[in-house]
């Protein structure tokens, strides 16, 4: 039975996750305020291109997480293998970047320079998987260090040295190095295991499955599709800023971070229903916040992009639904035991949830990308502007997500007890609606949009603090579960 403390690890991950919202937004603010739309589009394109070669990394991290959670000592082998695999991925990236750079008109030298990100990305992801397998909160420490270091690094490389996109790449490299060092130290007991080729043989043998599982989540084909069809990277700048605000609700999922490894280690299925209620407590205000503050948040990133507020709303709802869908599918794969049996055949894996659920996700991605391609072709014929294309892109993303999240919910109800606390969930949703509805009227009446970030940001932060503070206070007064949660947090702090 796994010794993972789900609530403890979840709360640490959540607190750190919310902290990274601040550091992440500072990083994004510096980047969006310093780069031109063309440069920001190139930066977004780099992120998309890296996903095409990072697809081979889960060959290691997917299995080492499951093995670590079950007490199998494959950690050192995983880190060494990951570093070796990153070399091959780097060569593949250079080839892809060259052809995409020629096709889209993006700066080829910058695209090629980004190859230096890959070795650090590979090793960092593998170390994160090891952490998640035995002490999920350790991974959060690596994440917060990465995000904290990004801020001074990006200030130095972009703001002071004026290195533009190259500066953004260098800041990430420095941040990854610090994160890797911290994760090595935190996981040193696990990294003392012996190097064994038998693990590598198993991972390579099952690489078809791990690649298939992670492909729908990792590979960002929509960015490439948009840039090629429109022949420009300017629209990606609008998308990046809208996506940054529209996906903030995903940080709420940190509270459920330990559910998957706990289930892998044989934990009770009831932990899912307990954690879903806690998830809603944090997710509803984040959902309401992103919708309410869509325009001022985009204005803070750069006044050029506040016209994308409508896209933020659609992306926020989509991110909320995707977060739930991911929780459902992770829980279902967490109780799948086909990979424990060394005699499992290819046919056994095909019949398992490890193959079936990614197949459904792949169908969803196909529907989404197909709809996006058709939509963009039609809209370009109608001479739509870049921001109009981005708004329709966000609508397509939302609509294609809805039926699949509902389907995953139906599947999880068949395997898990889901007697949710509906009264508490109703309280959280109504509290979010009341508090942030009132915040919206305050913003419309009193928030002044000043292009100076040093004038505008403090005012915006005041409204944000008022909104979240009011939500915490209101839910504490009307909900005993909330009072119990905060008392448990205080007790944990005192005990330590």
Descriptive notes:
- This protein is mostly helical.
- The protein has one domain.
- The protein contains 22 helices and no strands.
- It has helices spanning 6-34, 37-54, 58-69, 75-104, 108-113, 117-134, 136-160, 164-186, 197-205, 207-218, 221-230, 234-246, 259-264, 270-292, 294-301, 309-334, 346-351, 353-381, 386-415, 422-446, 453-478, 480-495.
Keywords:
single chain; 496 residues; mainly alpha; 81% helix
Nearest-integer average pLDDT:
85
Note the gap between the termini: 24 Å
Beta-strand residue fraction: under 5%
Any idea what the shape is?
globular
Query: What is the number of beta strands?
Result: 0
> How many separate structural domains?
1
Order of helices and strands: HHHHHHHHHHHHHHHHHHHHHH
Rg over CA atoms, rounded to whole Å, is 22 Å
The largest sheet, given as strand count, sense and whether it forms a barrel, is:
none
Please bin the fraction of helical residues.
Answer: over 70%
- Low-pLDDT segments: none
Summed up, the helix count is 22
Overall structural class, as computed from helix and strand content, comes to mainly alpha
Short summary:
81% of the residues lie in helices and 0% in strands. It is mainly α.
Topology (elements, then pairings):
Elements: H1 6-34, H2 37-54, H3 58-69, H4 75-104, H5 108-113, H6 117-134, H7 136-160, H8 164-186, H9 197-205, H10 207-218, H11 221-230, H12 234-246, H13 259-264, H14 270-292, H15 294-301, H16 309-334, H17 346-351, H18 353-381, H19 386-415, H20 422-446, H21 453-478, H22 480-495
Helix pairs in contact: 1-7, 2-4, 2-11, 2-12, 3-4, 3-6, 3-10, 4-6, 6-7, 6-8, 7-8, 10-18, 11-18, 12-15, 12-16, 12-19, 14-16, 14-20, 16-19, 18-19, 20-21, 21-22
